[in-house]
Design brief:
mainly alpha
């Protein structure tokens, strides 16, 4: 097991703290920028564009940051584990750009996102089963009206389920650190945008075939409002194929 492979617990703890700091700072910066711009600086301009009619509940934002901190601890732990696995040659992460060619960089990014999407869609549907929901997913849905700070607001069990998939994929799929870095940034900003409760993608873009593939704040707003629809992470294709796309969203398009 991995703990037997790590022969310097002190170094591993330092590594976890570094990864935690990187994850939590990325979350604070991304969520903070969007919250400051849309809910503080330009609040008057965008208040009428809020997708939810109700406001944030008392103490919601502090609670979201609290749970996000613990999510970041778990994400940081798995980041450290992945790093130690890479050091020992157990992952498919590679450093030489010429090994697969530059063309493979975007291909690996797309492959990573599609596999992650598939895992997330089905695990997300499972988390909405009544018994599972109360124990694992309820913390996230305590935010009836999502905010940028909701992006990482998960119960530790859900954080564990969310954290494990990318390291597992990196054991099997060759991915360059450049792609990993861009993907982590993409993950964070996508989650913040989807929980913004203000649709920032232009209407003309959302009406295109390409735009309809992507999840935005409108799509995820209906998930938080209805609970039983719109389970996707980045893309809408699983919701369309499995007929879990919100009919209310479709009528609003």
């Amino acid at each position: 097991m991995i703990f037997f492979e790590i022969n310097n617990p002190g170094l591993f703890l330092v590594c976890v703290l570094i990864f935690f700091a990187a994850v939590f700072l990325r979350y604070l910066v991304a969520a903070g920028i969007f919250y400051w711009y849309y809910f503080k600086l330009k609040n008057k301009k965008f208040s009428a564009k809020r997708l939810s009619k109700r406001g944030f509940r008392k103490g919601q934002l502090k609670s979201e940051i609290y749970w996000s901190m613990w999510s970041s601890v778990i994400f940081g732990f798995f980041g450290a584990v992945t790093y130690f696995l890479w050091q020992r040659g157990f992952t498919a992460i590679y450093l030489d750009l010429e090994k697969y060619g530059l063309w493979y960089l975007p291909v690996s990014f797309i492959l990573l996102s599609l596999l992650h999407e598939t895992y997330y869609y089905w695990i997300h549907r499972w988390m909405h089963k009544p018994g599972v929901f109360r124990k694992i997913h309820k913390v996230h849905h305590d935010s009836l009206v999502p905010s940028p700070w909701t992006a990482f607001s998960f119960h530790p069990w859900e954080s564990l389920l969310e954290a494990i998939i990318v390291p597992l994929l990196l054991l099997l799929i060759p991915v360059h650190p450049i792609v990993i870095g861009l993907y982590l940034i993409f993950m964070t900003f996508s989650s913040v945008i989807n929980h913004l409760d203000i649709e920032i993608y232009p209407k003309f873009f959302r009406k295109t075939c390409f735009g309809k593939l992507f999840i935005g704040a409108t799509h995820h707003h209906f998930h938080h409002a209805e609970f039983k629809t719109n389970f996707g992470l980045y893309f809408t294709f699983w919701d369309r194929w499995m007929q879990t796309k919100s009919k209310s969203e479709a009528s609003s398009e």
